[in-house]
Amino acid sequence: METKAFQKIYTKIDNITKATVTVRASDIGIDELATVNGRLAQVVRIDGSEITLQVFSGTEGISTSSEVIFQGEPPKLKVGDDLAGRIFNAYGEPLFGSKEVVGEAREIGGPTINPYKRLQPSEFIPTGIAGIDLNNALVSGQKIPFFADPDQPYNQVMANVALRAKADKIILGGMGITNDDFLYFKNVFENAGALERIVFFVNTTENPPVERLLVPDMALTAAEYFAVDKNEKVLVLLTDMTLYADALAIVSNRMDQIPSKDSMPGSLYSDLAKIYEKAVQLPGGGSITIVAVTTLSGGDITHAVPDNTGYITEGQLFLRKDSDTGKVIVDPFRSLSRLKQLVIGKKTREDHPQVMNAAVRLFADAASAKTKLENGFDLTDYDERTLKFAFDYSNDLLSIDVNIDVTQMLDTAWALFSKYFKKSEVAIKEELVNKYWK
C-alpha cells in the first residue's frame, strides 16, 4: 500500500502474539486497516491508547521495531455493475489479472437495513431442487442454513443452487475452500455460461484463515449494492460458516479472550447475526436472500455454531445420505423453512401445501414400517407400499440431483400417490384429488 499524507506511522511495538501486535497510538478507529512490517493488519481492540491489530498473514518475522502504518480507514469494496462475472479475493481485489472495478468504494460490514424499511418476505425463489422447492420453499429476504456433514457434497449443492435459482445476481462467498472446490465452482459457472450474473469472493485453504472474516462482509456489501441501488433480487451463498467461526475462535484465543461453548468466542451469536440479519425484502423490489452452509462435527447439531445459527435463521436445510437409494437427499424430517407458508399455494400451484404434507406423512409411515421390519414384526400390505413409495420419493424428488420445476415436482408426487395408494389413503381434499390424480 502506498503511504498517504493522513497515515500515522509508528515504530515501537509493545507486544507480539502469533496473530496480533499491540502499539500505543491515538485517534485510531476500530476495524481500521494498517500495515505491520508491510503486512496487512486490522484494528481489533482499542483500550485507551493501547491498540491491538490482527495481522492477517501472522506475525512471524515481525520485531518490536517493525513499522506500523495506519491507513486511516476500514476495509472497503469498490461497487459497480462490473462486479458481476468476476472473482475476487477476501480483500475485494480481482483475481486472474482482471481489471479493477470502476465504482464507489464502500465500507464493508456496515449496519443492517432499518427494519422500518423492510417488507415481509413474499417472493418464491425456485432452485430446481425438489427437497427445497417442494418441502422447504425459499422466500426472498429469508436467511437459512444448510446443515451437512463435512463429507457431503454441499459445495455441489451450492453450485447447483447458484445455476438454477431464479435470481438477478448470485453472490458466492467461499471461506476455507480447497483449491479443488474453487476450481470446481469456477469451471461449473464458466461451462454453464452463468458467470456474468455471479460475483465470487474466495478464501482458499492456502490463504490465512483470518482472511475468512472479511469474506461475508465483502459478499454482503456487493449484495446490498445490487439489491438497494439496483432493486435486484440477490441470492447470497456462503460456504462454510463453521470455518468462518473457527477463524473467529483463532483470533479470540490469540487475544487471550475467555472462550465460550465449544471453544468459540462469547461474541459468536452477534458475529453470526450481523451477517444473517442482512437478509431483507425491500419495498423497491430488491431483496437479499442468504443460504449458508454450516458443516457439522460428527453430525452434532448441538455444537455452538449450528446451535446459535438455528436461533438466528428461519429454519434449516439438512443434508443426509439415504440408506435405501444411496443418494444424498434434503431430509424432510430435519429440514424446515419457517417462511414457506408465505408462498406455497400462493405463488405456486394450489395443491402444493397438501401434496407436500401428504408426501411427508407417507414417508414417515415408511420409516415406521422400516422400524417394524428391523424389529422382526410382520408388515401389512400398506406398509409394503409405503416402503416402495419412500424409495421412489427419495430417488425422484428428495435427491439433490433432481432438477425440475415445481409443477413437475407436484405432478411427480401425484404420479407416485396413484402408483402406490388409493385416493382415500393420501388424505388430500377431494376437489384437488379429482383435479390432479394421475
Structural features, described:
This protein has 438 residues and is α/β, with parallel strands linked by helices. The chain has three domains: 8-70, Elongation Factor Tu (Ef-tu), domain 3 (Beta Barrel), CATH 2.40.30.20; 76-341, Rossmann fold, CATH 3.40.50; 352-436, no CATH class. The protein has helices spanning 130-133, 154-164, 179-191, 215-229, 241-254, 268-276, 304-312, 352-374, 381-398, 406-420, 423-426, 430-436; strands spanning 8-10, 13-16, 20-24, 33-36, 39-47, 50-55, 68-70, 76-79, 86-88, 104-107, 124-125, 138-139, 143-148, 169-177, 198-204, 233-239, 280-281, 287-295, 315-321, 328-330, 336-337. Strands 9, 13, 14, 15, 16, 17, 18, 19, 20 and 21 form a ten-stranded mixed sheet that branches. Strands 1-7-4-5-6-3-2 form a seven-stranded antiparallel sheet, with no helix packed on it. A hairpin with a 2-residue loop joins strand 4 (33-36) and strand 5 (39-47). The protein is elongated and about 80 Å long.
